[in-house]
Amino acid sequence: MGTDDLRPASSSSGPRSGVDIDFPVVYGQLRALASSMLSGRGPAQTLQPTAVVHEAFVRLQATSGLSYSDREHFFAIAARAMRNVLVDHARAKRAGKRGEGWQRISLSGIAGDNIAEDFDAADVSEALDRLAVLSERQARIVELRFFAGLTVEDVARVIEVSERTVRNEWRVARAWLRAELSGEKPDAR
Amino acid sequence: MPADHARVSEVFLSACDLAPEAVAPFLDEVCADDGELRRAVEAMLKADRVVEDPLSDEKIDDVPGPASIPKQIGPFRILGEIGRGGMGVVYEAEQAAPARRVAVKVIHPGAATPGMVSRFRRESELLGRLRHLGIAQIYEAGTVESEAGEQPYFAMELVSGSPLRRYADHHGLDLAARLELLARIADAVQHAHVNGVVHRDLKPENILVSDEPSGSSSGHARFTHVGQPKILDFGVARATGDEARVATLRTSEGQIVGTLAYMSPEQVSAARDVDARADVYALGVIGYELVSGELPFDLAGLAVPEALRRVCEDEPSRLGTLVSAARGDAETIILKAMEKQADRRYQSASEFASDIRRSLASQPITARPPSTMYQLSRFAKRNRGLVAGVAVAFVILVLGIIATSWQAITAIRAQREALATARFQEQMLSDLDQHEFGVALRQLLLEASAEESEEIRAYLTRINTTDVAVALLDEQILSPADRALEADLADQPALAVPLGASLANVYQDLGAAERAIEVWSRVRDRAIEYFGPDDRWAIVAAWRVGEEVRRLGRYDEAENLYQDAHERAVRVFGASDAISLGIELDIARLRFERGRFDGALTDVRDLYDRVLGALGYQNAETVNTGVLLADYLLTFDRLDEAEAFLLEFVPGVENAYGASDPLTAGVLIQLARLRNLQLRYEESVALRERVLSIYSARLGNNHRSTTDAERTLSGEYRNVGDLDRAVYHAESAYERVTRVFGMRHIAVFDAANDLALAYEDAGRLEDAERLASSSLVAKRELLGNDHRHTLIAINNLGMLYRNMERWEDSRVLLEEAFETRKRVLGTGHTFTLGSGFNLADTCRRLGELTRSIDIGLEVVDIALEQDSLGPDHIYTAMFRVPVAEGLIEAGRSDEARAQLVEAQRVFEMDGPIGDFAERAERLLTVIDGEISE
Q1: pLDDT digits (tens, 9 = 90+) for B76-89
Q2: Touching check for A132 and chain B: CB below 8 Å?
Q3: Which one has a higher pLDDT value, A21 or B911?
């Protein structure tokens, strides 16, 4: 996966920001952070992407003058970066030892969703790609909620639609993904 | 055929909130024979139920433990499980030798890394050394092999007791007992710190209090009923290292936030290494919660970054607003422990504990530099009888209201007077804190009356003790000092002049304007006589006299004094000297207060540049000038310029003086005003809260700046419609201001004004009227009818009567306000026009249509002529609307139409103001409707 693949299409159309937040920087931060948090872990550890992203935000804030008002912009980028981090690791691990490692992520990554069922990050990402074909917006909402832990309000601001739309689309997308990942195949093709 | 995703989404959304039994019929109908669609939706509904069904919720922060309880861990026989958390499980266990019950905490295998295990071994020895009544003793630490791998464990003292908060509530502890409990916790923390162990995760859940009272504690005999707190898990955070933090982050958002509440800013931002002062911070938070029942920052439901921001940036609500008994020392101590910067906190847990104990013993605390009066009031508490005697003697002496014979009291007087006079003289000539003075004296008087007779108490309730205190001070101390200066020091001008100046300062601070003018004038005369008119003191004294007469609204006199002083100052010291610039600043203020704005803004800008250039940010004069400049910009509605200026000025001042300096607060007030004018009320409320907390911490609750900050905060809460808070703060400010300054001080009028407005908004019109009318009476007497404060009061009471539909009363006052303002401020002043605008409306309500129209048109015409307003100003447009209403009523539709069209032009340009744009549009429709008929 080349660097060019990592640059999200959204970075130019995202919210304006006083600080130029570079995707590679965020990506590097997240990857380093995720590695350090998870190195040496035993099996069955789950990673909460939201926690990693928030920690990265706090650190970047401390070191790069990122202001609080940059957070939406940051999270929009971080969501994509986090997804890549997780997928990279998942694939690397998959290539090595199968069935073990930290790449299992929990769909409970979002506050208020207390479910403990875990999915493989690479699987989630692939399913998300399929969802993007069906509804680009739903996929984007999932990405923001799921990988960056944005609230409904924040997502609404980032993609510039109403909160109600976000809430509805999120519910659809989440159900679709769950069905998809558990092999129920909601949309036949 | 694949189902269309948009259709699937739509059907799913319609179905997902239906009752279970309604789903199938719905799908039958919607999907008809589209099997793909139905299958897709059903799969999603099934997935959705897993997510939404509360019964399927599994708490993710419950790390699943081993299915069965182990029989033995190391040398300990396990008896049962006590509890479990994110890190591991705690068992009750039995040790054979020595024979005792212990608690064994086993770190969950998943949470233990190889690095942790080895560090754990190193640390366990250190932890074993901690031996303190307030710390659950760690007996042993080790690792045990289990099927999941190596598991570290701690064996520690088995503590029976209740968690801290429950204990305090259950036993109904009062404030003092809670503080004692807090001090005992701090003792234990200190013990660990001395031994090189920082807890780093102190929170109430980690503190148990034994239910049996501990008679043996280090505490005071009066607290023998308070149980002994014991801190659990001491050193565990350190022994387990950074992983503990990661573990916390991993568990769940709710838990992170729960822990965050007790974490210091440096801890949450990982900005620096965490030291013992992080525990001091946590102690502060625990104390805050223990005293008030609330956390200093409400982090519930917040996303992590927002929670972090609050911890790092927000100031906690003042404890005294939650628990009034905690005002004063308890608040000061706890907030000092919670300072954002570790350097500003207590530097150790023991400093914290001893300050608490000092406060419990009514001794001066260290939390702020204790002023002399503060120490005196402490002294008074401890030596109640002695001081009370003095106070009573003084009251009787000064008031002469007790029908006791003079002989009966001369004994007390003879005994005490010399002592008291000496003390007070010393106060007066060193650093008398005039704001504490009224409070302290009142306190003394009340305490005295409690021990003396009901008769005195009855008198005291009827008089304002601060007025008495001021009179007493004048009579007993200041006047004799003044006479002494005249008589004894007549031939020593070099001493008499500065002493006179300090005496005058005291009068000035007491709000005794006439006496201050008198003494300053004498200082000036004497300085001129002995040292010539260009002497520093001669110039300063003239300046001060000017300042006082300006405050009394005698503007011409003030202007002459200022001009003369300024001319001399420039000649003697140069134009860039702080005195010259200071006088120039006051001249600018004077122009501002008189409403003479022509060219003033340019002048103030120029002055600011010169002051900044000459003195830099590090000088108070610069800050004051910047504040005036901001004041001008805001008054003229030049919000963009004001914003640009303040965004540079505020950080400049913050850098020079620090974030919690009173000067910084003065600048933040201007920023708050800006945010208010920009309708960004949440920000202005937050800024005003910050200002209040700075003043309250640095100047004390009774300082004029603090009470001013509190009443303006009340105004902000009025803006956001939080009327409970608005009334609360206005009452609190008013209560304190009357206590400190007596009833006849300018500060009291401002406070009364805000309180009246708060009452008015809260619908308590009768209360508002009572307050507003009595304070208007006092203003007329004290300041005269033409003073701007009097005029504001007249106008506001007029508006209040209008709201009460007392139209006649309203008209009389608004008429007076309009006419007087025309005369004093000039016809073109916004305030004048505002009064006219209000008056026109009231006249219309009274049915005096012609009069209303005439006044309204007059106001519009004047506004049109003003440079500061003119045809394009939103106020001018606003003035037109009610006039047009009157004109329509009078059948003068064409004139009305002309006014409305003009108004609408401006509204379209500048946006609406209030409901005026709406009203204009409605009226135009009405007129056009009539015409077309």
Answers
A1: 888 877 776 556 67
A2: no
A3: B911
pLDDT confidence of residue B772: 85
Rounded to an integer, the average pLDDT of A119-144 is 83
Mode of pairing for the β-strands spanning A104-106 and A118-120? antiparallel
Q: Which residues contact B835 (CB under 8 A, 6 or more apart)?
A: B795, B798, B814, B817, B818, B821
Chain B environment of A176 (Cβ under 8 Å): 8-9, 44, 47
User: Which of B11-15, B272-276, B579-583, B871-875 comes out lowest in average pLDDT?
Assistant: B272-276
* 3-state secondary structure labels for all residues of B751-813: HHHHHHHHHHHCCCHHHHHHHHHHHHHHHHHHHCCCCHHHHHHHHHHHHHHHHCCCHHHHHHH
Question: Which residues of A fall within a CB distance of 8 Å from B50?
Answer: 115, 117, 178
Q: For residue A107, what are the contacts with CB-CB under 8 A and spacing of at least 6?
A: A113, A115, A117, A118, A119, A146, A174, A177, A178, B51
Quick one: tokens of B448?
A: 């005295």
Site of tokens 């309500």: B845
Mean pLDDT (whole number) for B302-322: 77
Out of B113, B254, B304, the one facing A54 most closely (by C-beta) is B304
Nearest to B36 among A55, A171, A188 (CB): A188
From CA B130, how far away is CA B135, in angstroms rounded?
8
H or E element at residue B448: helix B434-451
- Residue B162 backbone zone (phi > 0: left; psi -120 to 50: alpha; other: beta): beta
Which residue is closest to A57 within chain B, CA to CA?
B305
pLDDT-based confidence at residue B865 (cuts at 50, 70, 90): confident
E strand or H helix at A153, and its extent? helix A152-159
A44 near B CB under 8 A? yes
Q: Following DSSP, what letter does each residue of B272-329 receive, concatenated?
A: S---HHHHHHHHHHHHHHHHHSS-SS--TT--HHHHHHHHHHPPPPPHHHH-GGGTTH
Picking from B9, B58, B308, the nearest residue to A58 by CB comes out as: B308
Q: What is the pLDDT of residues B584-635, one digit of tens each?
A: 888 988 887 776 767 778 888 998 998 888 888 888 788 888 998 998 888 7
Selecting from A37, A68, A115 the residue whose C-beta is nearest the C-beta of B51 gives: A115
Phi first, then psi: give them for residue B726, nearest 5 degrees: -60, -50
Task: Number of A to B CB contacts under 8 A, please give it.
Answer: 134
* Closest residue, chain A, to B247 (C-alpha): A37
Per-residue pLDDT tens digits for B747-765 = 777 888 889 989 988 988 8
Write the CB contacts of B848 (distance below 8 Å, at least 6 apart in sequence).
none
Buried b / exposed e along B210-238 (16+ C-beta atoms within 10 A):
beeebeebebeeebeebbbbbbbbbbbbb
Average pLDDT over residues B437-457: 48
Which pLDDT band, with edges at 50, 70 and 90, does A116 fall under? very low
* Helices (H), ranges, B511-619: 513-531, 536-551, 555-573, 578-594, 600-615
Q: Give the integer Cα–Cα distance in Å for B922 and B912.
A: 14
Q: Flag if B250 and A68 touch (Cβ within 8 Å).
A: no
Task: Express as a percent the part of chain B with pLDDT over 70.
Answer: 72
| B533-562 confidence digits (pLDDT tens) | 888 889 999 999 998 888 777 888 899 999
CB contact under 8 A, B8 and A44: no
Contact with chain B for residue A109, Cβ under 8 A: no
Segment B567-584, tens digit of pLDDT: 999 999 888 888 888 898
Higher-confidence position of A58 and B168: B168
Contacts of residue B894, defined as CB under 8 A and 6 or more positions apart, other chains included, come to: none
| ipTM exceeds 0.90 | no
Using the beta-carbon criterion (under 8 Å), do A175 and B12 form an inter-chain contact? yes
